[in-house]
């Protein structure tokens, strides 16, 4: 009897499996783009801008574009300008060894490296390859040499400063553990944010002269952007744009991803048989295709810190409020404003749906190849569903490369970010959904190379998305007009602004 019951149960289960594709075909379509979760559509939050989304989907194929989104930037006459006004020369006698301990993510560390080189030049010191602290958020223990090509770094800067990979034996005691145990005379821990060159002469140089070594920890945003010699400014840019090259395996994987984005096969072959396998024979190629790199920057921290409403209802509101309290104990000022006030002020990060509507309004259609550069999207595939409807040719590292190819970067946030940075620098268009370290670094680097980079007008978009009666044509017109001057054109750096985001005029020459 029990056996008969099991047989009937098995038959019913088998029948259910057979008819399931009829009623839910989307669950069984090939997962060729960005590896969506099978069951995510059942839990997807409702679109926040359904009217605009439906209009964009209906008009993508037929709408007359107001502008060509792929048109290159015009030449404004600015060129990279990194040569020193004086012939570069090493000091005859180094004042000692300079150590710096860098925290933060990849792009914060990148800026710290540039500042460290500049401080070493200011002090006539020998720089020790910077030490990377373990990232508290991502728990990434990657070192400088795991991410950047050390030999290239030293070679590019060999005429500017002395650099050593390791301290000589006489100073081998100067380690992170040594400075963690007690106060040490050779450690500087009170370097102010945006310290002047004079501060380093007064506070660090005496330690170098007394002990032959000085260790600065923490070292993040510890050098001013103003009132520095032009040679120092240009040296910072030389480090950022020339000396910092990723290690070969990151560049190789990045090149493979770029090739697959530019030359997509009609039917993607199963990956994994050959490392960094070519996707198609060069003779069959029709010429390189174009692609957009999108950095979403929509993780849980970003969503909670903003205190904005993202359409997930009461449950999401309570979950983010709880997370905000646990992380920042009520210190998030944005939580004192209403959602409408925050959006009017441009303080709400764009959701995947909203950045998709922005790109659609700018003229990108459903044939656009989109590369998603993000560590983790809050809400996962459910949150990406509206963006995927607008741009079905959306890819990421997992969809473009095999597990074997990704083995060396898997689980390492800094290496994952490095691959995204590399692909971003080789894309036709780069756009970041919200300002941040990655956004700032890419804006500056792509400005230096005169590459098109869309900077969302957060204030304008916040106001447009609040208007629930706006038609698609009105929305599109407002978006196009509001972003005409936000596509990578040169912006002159103002006092106190970062030289890494605004390299002109310090590191670029006009005419």
Give the SSE layout:
Elements (H helix, E strand, L loop, with lengths): L1 H22 L26 H10 L18 E3 L16 E6 L3 H18 L2 E3 L2 E2 L11 H4 L2 H7 L6 E2 L11 H6 L5 E2 L8 H7 L1 H7 L1 E4 L13 H14 L4 H15 L28 E5 L4 H7 L6 H16 L10 H6 L7 H10 L7 E4 L7 H11 L3 E2 L1 H4 L12 H13 L3 E4 L4 H12 L4 E2 L3 H9 L5 H11 L25 E3 L1
Parallel strand pairs: 2-3, 2-4, 2-7, 3-5, 6-7, 8-9, 8-11, 9-10, 11-12
Antiparallel strand pairs: 1-13
Tell me what the structure shows:
- This protein is of the alpha/beta class and 511 residues long.
- Helix content is 41%, strand content 8%.
- The strands form three sheets. Strands 2, 3, 4, 5, 6 and 7 form a six-stranded parallel beta sheet that branches.
- Strand 9, helix 15 and strand 10 form a beta-alpha-beta unit.
- Helix 10 crosses helix 17.
- The longest helix is centred in the N-terminal third of the chain and has 22 residues, at 2-23.
């Amino acid at each position: 009897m029990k056996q008969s019951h099991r047989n009937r149960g098995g038959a019913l289960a088998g029948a259910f499996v057979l008819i399931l594709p009829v009623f839910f075909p989307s669950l069984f379509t090939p997962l060729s783009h960005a590896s969506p979760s099978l069951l995510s559509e059942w839990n997807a939050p409702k679109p926040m801008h359904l009217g605009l989304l439906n209009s964009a989907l209906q008009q993508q194929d037929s709408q007359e574009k107001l502008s060509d989104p792929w048109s290159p930037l015009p030449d404004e006459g600015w060129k990279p300008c990194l040569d020193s006004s004086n012939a570069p020369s090493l000091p005859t006698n180094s004042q000692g060894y300079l150590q710096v301990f860098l925290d933060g993510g990849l792009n914060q560390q990148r800026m710290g490296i540039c500042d460290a080189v500049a401080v070493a030049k200011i002090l006539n010191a020998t720089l020790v390859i910077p030490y990377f602290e373990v990232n508290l958020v991502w728990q990434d223990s990657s070192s400088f040499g795991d991410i950047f090509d050390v030999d290239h770094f030293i070679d590019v800067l060999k005429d500017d400063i002395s650099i050593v990979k390791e301290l000589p034996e006489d100073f081998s005691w100067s380690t992170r553990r040594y400075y963690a145990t007690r106060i040490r005379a050779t450690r500087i821990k009170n370097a102010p944010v945006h310290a002047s060159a004079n501060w380093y002469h007064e506070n660090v140089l005496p330690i170098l002269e007394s002990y032959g070594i000085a260790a600065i920890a923490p070292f993040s945003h510890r050098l001013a952007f103003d009132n520095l010699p032009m040679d120092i400014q240009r040296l910072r840019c030389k480090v950022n744009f020339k000396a910092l090259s990723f290690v070969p395996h990151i560049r190789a994987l990045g090149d493979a991803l770029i090739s697959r984005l530019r030359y997509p096969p009609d039917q993607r072959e199963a990956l994994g048989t050959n490392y960094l396998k070519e996707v198609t024979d060069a003779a069959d190629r029709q010429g390189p295709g174009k692609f957009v790199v999108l950095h979403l920057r929509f993780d849980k921290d970003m969503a909670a810190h903003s205190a904005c409403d993202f359409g997930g209802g009461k449950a999401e509101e309570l979950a983010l409020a709880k997370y905000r309290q646990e992380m920042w104990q009520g210190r998030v000022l944005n939580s004192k404003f209403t959602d409408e006030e925050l959006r009017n002020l441009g303080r709400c990060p764009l959701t995947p749906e909203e950045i998709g509507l922005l790109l659609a309004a700018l003229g990108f259609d459903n044939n656009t190849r989109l590369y998603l550069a993000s560590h983790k999207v809050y809400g996962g595939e459910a949150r990406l569903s509206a963006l995927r409807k607008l741009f079905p040719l959306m890819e990421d590292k997992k969809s473009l490369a095999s597990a074997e190819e990704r083995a060396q970067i898997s689980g390492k946030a800094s290496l994952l970010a490095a691959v995204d940075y590399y692909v971003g620098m080789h894309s036709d268009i780069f756009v970041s959904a919200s300002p941040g370290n990655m956004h700032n670094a890419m804006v500056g680097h792509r400005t230096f190379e005169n590459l098109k980079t869309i900077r969302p007008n957060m204030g304008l978009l916040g106001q447009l998305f609040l208007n629930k009666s706006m038609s698609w044509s009105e929305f599109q017109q407002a978006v196009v007009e509001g972003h005409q001057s936000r596509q990578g054109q040169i912006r002159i750096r103002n006092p106190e602004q970062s030289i890494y985001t605004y390299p002109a005029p310090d590191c670029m020459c006009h005419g």
